[in-house]
From TrEMBL:
Positions of post-translational N6-(pyridoxal phosphate)lysine modification: 731
Entry GO terms, CC: cytoplasm
Domain of life of the native organism: Eukaryota
Cofactor(s) this protein requires: pyridoxal 5'-phosphate
Reactions it catalyzes: [(1->4)-alpha-D-glucosyl](n) + phosphate = [(1->4)-alpha-D-glucosyl](n-1) + alpha-D-glucose 1-phosphate
Protein name stated in the entry: Alpha-1,4 glucan phosphorylase
The entry's keywords: Carbohydrate metabolism, Glycosyltransferase, Pyridoxal phosphate, Transferase
Protein task: Allosteric enzyme that catalyzes the rate-limiting step in glycogen catabolism, the phosphorolytic cleavage of glycogen to produce glucose-1-phosphate, and plays a central role in maintaining cellular and organismal glucose homeostasis.
Family: Belongs to the glycogen phosphorylase family.
Region (Disordered) location: 1-35
UniProt-recorded Gene Ontology molecular function terms: glycogen phosphorylase activity; pyridoxal phosphate binding
One BP annotation, GO: glycogen catabolic process
Length: 943
């Protein structure tokens, strides 16, 4: 029996048990829910019959009893109806984009049905729900994912073909919502997919930014950031909830008064803005459950306008209103200025306050004791950005509902749990006390109160320790620095009942280094929850060839909801037909990427070359620079060879993609360096197809879906101990790429499962890093020095711009590029040697792909539900095959919910200035800023 990492989630196949006994039995029933019911007439289920009361309208009930059927003609009618009646287009200007929008709206109609039923069921069952709070959700495109999860992809394809449209082309019309930045945001989206698929009662909460992460363009090798107004084309998936709004306060003062011997606080704000909800249905795979992602947008209220208008200051009043709208206008405002910092804190509080009000309103729908709150509500804080929810909940309980402090604290403690996503100390959020006091005076008082109680306890615990005051200083929620600051991670750790890291190695580092004192103090609180990714998006949507192989050989689609099943295919590892299909699938993915590269970058790449790919945020700890140094090393080697020797070498295409934070000059220089290497190598006639270097612009979820399945080799080369987990490593291996990597983040667990012999592992191990750092000024060694000298002398781009990249490595190489370089090139040589033996390469690649069961986000979510949230799943009953004859009232169905809102906003094209007109000097100047003066924005510490 294979050892399974989790208790109740093993596949019957591996545990030797029958399906009935396996944790996945529910799966079977779910399968019959979507797939087998097919195109029969389906009636919507009924819940909570006892409490629904008397009939209100028989006709209404009857009209809303049926699910939309899945007949081809129904699909077609719905699409043309949306084209004509929602988009107001005619037969004569019916184009691809309107067809996409109409198809999306018709899919949304279906999602709304299950979404409404799911919400109604959650309310009726009244089980505990988890609320996943995240400042980012990197959703990616929704259409294909929705169709796959609904089991309707083929039907839509067929229906559209008859009206002259290709489904795949419509997919390309969809704009990627840029509501996130990196791994943390994508993880949140994978989690929602798994929560919905596993039928957990869950909601996501976040912010509906007008401008997400910038759109990256590469102009003359430089990164140029363009605003990404993703809403310009309307978002067909969201539902505006003008009926769900909350007031959010800022600023002002706190009034105190005594009531029955107890001090009462009343916060009198001097600013109020409004939060309005936008709901985004998230369908589970092969289930009728559809959960909600509620995103908040800020709006002005009328409250304070009156005064300004009365004083005749019309423009001032408008300005105040615009300031309110500003709050949700952009993801991660630049925090290098005081006003940028303030905007970030406003954003965070805004979304926390709206969310807590929403959760409490839902909780209070039934009369209950406050002690029941933790039985009904779990709140997961995705990093510290939503941490102000903690003092906010305490404030609501104490100030608004009059709970005594200790009682409120006990409740709050059970509700919250916190996930840390990075060990980079500079990425741990801190807010100056002065700013906090000005913006959130009551919350600062509450944080001081938490700290007062906590410091008392710590003081008692370490009463006899000579380091008592150091320990207290380290654990305090307040940093006694200048300016004094609130430490958000400490607030989260102290106030949550569970704290977790995102891979085993990372969780250990939290316990032994970053939060060692806290671990000593709260040993049981710390846990590990290794990340995962959803196989629905990252295999099924992205890699049709591989998905077809799995379904064919496993004779079912079950692997999509139980990824451990793919391991069963190991018995085919020597089967030639299977191997050939696997090889062909990879080749087709490479051809698809080659076409994309030619279109986006104008570079032709050979598909018989090894595709060696690194895509992630550009950061020194991730070491794209190490990858670049290897490219130069390889180029020099090729140049030094005779023509005959060259012909024996493995062809390689090096591809790098990722965004550098706008203020992070060193990262931008790395992009420029890679492009400069490309300029030299790609135009060298000696080299030809032997080596190509491509920078893939504007890396995002939809391009990842094309890039990842095409990789032969994936670079996962962060310095040991710096990458919390990484999730692209999982996506790549699932799609048959082999890891070239360090023992860092989740790489460690991946090689544990796939076998270390099926990856290329090099470099310092975590326990060696500190010692090596001490020697970071050591010489580079002759082969590396030669590369440094070439960069400094201008062989690859302007040395005025790029030398500093090398100098920093020569002086203080904190990420150990120099000391890992030689073991890296050795492994790269090994990769070449294996690649020459295509049989062996293929087997390594297949073995990796088939053994990734543990890295499905379904496994991760299951663990969170069991160990942290104490959550039970709630599955929607299957639809009935006949209409329910009794007449019921349906208080929860509000016809206004189905109104389709349009957000067609025009006139946002002005910024599309002619990019090629930017003078080269301006671009150069952008890299020549004084690096010291550039503060690195916090959000760069992400994957
Ligand atoms: C990132 C880490 C990654 C990790 C993701 C998801 C942040 C702050 N951290 O290693 O860098 O995979 O989080 O956990 O975005």
């Amino acid at each position: 029996m294979e050892e399974q990492p989790i208790k109740h989630y093993s596949s019957g196949v591996f545990s030797g048990e029958g399906e009935e006994n396996s944790g996945l039995h529910r799966r079977g029933s779910r399968h019959s829910s979507r797939v087998e019911l097919g195109s029969q007439k389906l009636y919507r289920p009924e819940f909570d019959s006892a409490s629904r009361g008397e009939a209100t309208s028989e006709k209404l009930w009857e009209l809303m009893a049926e699910y939309i059927d899945t007949e081809k003609s129904t699909i077609q009618k719905a699409i043309v109806a949306h084209v004509e009646y929602t988009l107001a287009r005619t037969r004569f200007n019916f184009d691809k984009n309107s067809c996409f929008k109409a198809a999306a709206l018709s899919i949304r109609d279906r999602l709304i049905e299950s979404w409404n039923d799911t919400q109604q069921l959650f309310t009726a069952e009244d089980k505990k729900r988890v609320y996943y709070m995240s400042i980012e959700f990197l959703i990616g495109r929704s259409m294909q994912n929705a169709l796959i999860n609904l089991g309707l992809e083929d039907k839509y394809r067929e229906a559209l073909e008859e009206v002259g449209y290709k489904l795949e082309e419509l997919y390309d019309e969809e704009v990627d919502p840029g509501l996130g930045n990196g791994g943390l945001g994508r993880l949140a989206s994978c989690f929602l997919d798994s929560l919905a698929t596993l039928d957990y009662p869950a909601w996501g909460y976040g912010i509906r930014y007008d401008y997400g992460i910038f759109r990256q363009m590469i102009v003359k090798g430089y990164q140029v950031e363009m605003p990404d107004y993703w809403l310009a084309q309307m978002n067909p998936w969201e539902i505006e909830r003008s009926d769900v709004t909350y007031d959010i306060y800022f600023g002002g003062r706190v009034e105190k008064k005594w009531e029955n011997g107890i001090e009462k606080s009343n916060w009198i704000p001097n600013e109020i803005v409004k939060a309005i909800a936008y709901d985004n249905p998230i369908p589970g795979y092969d289930t009728f459950n559809t959960i909600n992602l509620r995103l908040w947008k800020s709006m002005p209220t009328n409250e304070f306008d009156f005064q300004s208008f009365n004083q005749g200051d019309y423009f001032k009043a408008i300005e105040t209103r615009q300031k309110a709208e500003y709050i949700t206008s952009v993801l991660y405002p630049n925090d290098s200025t005081p006003s940028g910092k303030e905007l970030r804190l406003r954003q965070q509080y805004f979304f926390c306050c709206a969310t807590i009000q929403d959760i409490i309103r839902r909780f209070l729908k039934k009369p209950r004791e406050w002690e029941e709150l933790p039985d009904k509500v779990a709140i997961q804080l995705n990093d510290t950005h939503p941490a102000i929810s903690i003092p906010e909940l305490l404030r609501v309980l104490v100030d608004k509902y009059g709970l005594e402090w200790q009682r409120a604290w006990n409740i709050c403690y059970k509700v919250f749990s916190y996930t840390n996503h990075t060990v980079m100390p500079e990425a741990l959020e801190k807010w100056s006390v002065e700013l906090f006091e000005r913006l959130l005076p009551r919350h600062l008082e509450i944080i001081y109160l938490i700290n007062f109680h906590f410091m008392n306890q710590v003081g008692q615990r370490y009463a006899n320790d000579p380091k008592k005051f150091d320990i207290m200083g380290y654990m305090s929620l307040i940093e006694e620095s200048r300016p004094k600051a609130v430490r958000m991670a400490n607030l989260c750790i102290v106030s949550s009942h569970a704290v977790n890291g995102v891979a085993a190695l990372h969780s250990n580092l939290l316990k032994t280094q970053l939060f060692a004192r806290f671990h000593e103090y709260f040993p049981k609180k710390f846990q590990n929850k290794t990340n995962g990714v959803t196989p629905r998006r990252w295999i099924k949507c992205s890699n049709k060839g591989l998905s077809d192989i799995y379904t064919k050989y496993l004779k079912s689609n079950n692997w999509l909801s139980d990824l451990y099943e793919t391991k069963n295919l190991m018995s085919y590892i020597d089967n030639e037909e299977f191997q050939e299909e696997f090889r062909q699938a990879k080749l087709q993915n490479k051809e698809r990427l080659a076409k994309w590269v030619e279109k986006e970058c104008g570079i032709k790449i050979p598909t018989d070359a090894m595709f060696d790919i690194m895509v992630k945020r550009i950061h020194e700890y991730k070491r794209q620079n190490l990858f670049a140094l290897y490219m130069i090393y390889r180029y020099f080697n090729l140049k030094a060879m005779t023509v005959d020797d060259r012909a024996k070498q493995v062809k390689r295409v090096f591809m790098v993609g990722g965004k550098a934070a706008p203020g992070y000059i060193a990262a931008k220089k790395i992009i420029k360096l890679i492009n400069s290497i490309g300029d030299v190598v790609n135009n060298d006639p000696d080299i030809g197809d032997l080596m190509k270097v491509v920078f893939l612009p504007n890396y995002c979820v939809s391009s990842a879906q094309i890039i990842i399945p095409a990789a032969d080799l994936t670079e996962q080369i962060s310095t040991a101990g710096t990458e919390a987990s990484g999730t692209s490593n999982m996506k790549f291996v699932m799609n048959g790429a082999i890891i070239m990597g360090t023992m860092d983040g989740a790489n460690v667990e991946i090689v544990e499962d796939i076998g270390i012999q099926n990856a290329f592992i090099f470099g310092a191990r975590v326990h060696e890093v500190d010692r090596l750092r001490v020697q970071s000024g050591a010489p580079a060694g002759s082969r590396l020095q030669r590369i440094f000298d070439a960069i400094k002398s201008g062989t690859f781009g302007n040395p005025k711009e790029l030398s500093s990249l090398v100098e920093s490595l020569e002086q203080h190489d904190i990420y150990l590029v120099k000391s890992d370089f030689y073991s890296y090139i050795e492994k790269q040589e090994e990769a070449d040697a294996v690649y020459k033996n295509q049989d062996r390469w293929l087997k390594m690649s297949i073995t990796g792909a088939l053994n990734m069961g543990r890295f499905s986000s379904d496994r991760t979510i299951h663990e969170y539900a069991e160990d942290i949230w104490d959550l039970e799943s709630v599955e929607i009953p299957k639809p009935s095959l006949s209409a329910i004859s009794r007449v019921k009232s349906q208080p929860n169905i509000n016809p206004t919910q189905e109104i389709v809102e349009q957000h067609i906003i025009e006139g946002h094209e002005d910024w599309q200035c002619k990019i090629d007109d930017i003078p080269a000097e301006d671009l150069e100047a952008s890299l020549m800023k004084d690096e010291e003066s550039e503060k690195i924005p916090k959000y760069l510490y992400t994957s």
